[in-house]
Amino acid sequence: MKRLFAVISLLITLAWLSLRALGWTRYAAVLSGSVPEGAESVGDSTQRAVLLLAVHFAFVLFAAPLALSALGLHAWDVVSRARSRRAG
Predict the structure, then answer these.
(1) 40 DSSP 8-state letter
(2) Number of compact structural domains in the chain
(3) What gap in Å lies between CA 36 and CA 26, rounded to an integer?
(4) d(CA 24, CA 79)
(5) What is the DSSP string of 14-29?
(6) How many Å apart are CA 81 and CA 75, to the nearest integer?
(7) Which whole number is the average pLDDT over 59-69?
(8) Residue ranges of the alpha helices (H) in the chain?
(9) Residue 51, exposed/middle/buried by CB under 10 A (0-12, 13-18, 19+)?
(10) Does position 71 have pLDDT exceeding 90, yes or no?
(11) Can you give the pLDDT at residue 88?
């Protein structure tokens, strides 16, 4: 389970970093009613803005908690193994 949490967190983070590196943050301007320079159309800009927001919210709401959960589960496994070695 901890690997699944870590992989999902990593994928969300990579998606967010990729969109930022591609400069998609400028498409967020569509949400205030303006079309960014160089945009092909309003519809295209809107789709990119919605995708950017979805990935951003996934990054903020899920990436960090999943990464911390994976780290916590790993720490729990390490402590459990150490205790079982001492007991057995």
Answers:
(1) S
(2) 1
(3) 6
(4) 43
(5) HHHHHHHHTTGGGGGG
(6) 10
(7) 95
(8) 2-21, 42-58, 64-87
(9) middle
(10) yes
(11) 66
Per the CB < 8 A criterion, the answer to whether 45 and 35 are in contact is: yes
Q: Distance between CA 75 and CA 59 in Å, rounded?
A: 23
- 2-21 vs 64-87: helix axis angle to the nearest 10? 150
Structure tokens at 22: 């591609």
> Domain of 61?
2-87
With 0.70 as the threshold, say if the pTM is over it. yes
**Could you give the dihedral angle defined by the CA atoms of residues 18, 20, 24 and 27, in that order, rounded to the nearest 10 degrees?**
140
Question: What tokens appear for 78 in the block?
Answer: 């390490």
* Contact residues for 11 (Cβ-Cβ < 8 A; gap 6+): none
